[in-house]
Design a protein that fits this description.
The protein is mostly helical. Helix content is 84%, strand content 0%. Residues 1-184 form the Major facilitator superfamily (MFS) profile domain.
């Protein structure tokens, strides 16, 4: 349970950062208009759907911890590529491709997280666990939003978004370290 809680705290912080800076990233860094932001968010869902279908097509092939750990590591790496490529080439279409790519491991990670959470406590405690995990993510998302507002202006949008990507990578590595000690 503790690794899942730590995971939600780390990723919640990053999601708050991303949620706050996604629109300024598309508009300010990529030079996109309002329709570009809508397209950016829409294609993100395409990757999530593709990832969900891929996980569903091969049930049981990968352990839930591997799905969560490796999914989050690859999600973080895809997000890092998404956030830094515009430093050399600030055009929109690669962002659309990369956000789709990022959605695939993100969906795998969510499948792993949900399965691990369901397996980690007895039936009568699942609601409490999901409440704790959701509350931890919501609280740290608020903190991430506040940090994004401060850091986005001080260190820049791209650097702040890289904190989100780095947090994903670190959270995935943390889960993978648990696999060696206690595989599922």
């Amino acid at each position: 349970m503790r690794p899942l809680l730590a995971y939600m705290v780390i990723t919640g912080l990053g999601e708050g950062i991303f949620g706050t800076l996604a629109a300024p990233f598309v508009a300010g860094v990529l030079g996109g208009a309002g329709d570009a932001y809508g397209l950016f968010l829409s294609v993100q869902a395409v990757g999530g759907i593709a990832g969900g279908l891929a996980v569903a097509a091969w049930p049981g092939v990968t352990s839930p911890r591997a799905l969560l750990g490796w999914g989050t590591v690859f999600f973080g790496l895809a997000d890092l590529a998404l956030f830094v490529y515009p430093l050399a080439w600030p055009v929109l279409w690669p962002a659309l491709v990369l956000i789709v790519v990022a959605g695939v491991p993100a969906a795998a990670a969510m499948a792993g997280l949900t399965t691990l959470a369901q397996r980690s406590v007895p039936d009568g405690r699942r609601g409490a666990l999901f409440g704790l995990l959701g509350g931890a993510q919501a609280a740290t998302s608020l903190l991430g939003m506040a940090l994004a507002g401060v850091l986005g202006d001080r260190v820049g949008i791209v650097a702040t978004l890289c904190l989100h990507a780095g947090g994903l990578f670190a959270a995935g590595v943390m889960i993978l370290a648990r696999i060696r000690k206690d595989p599922v």
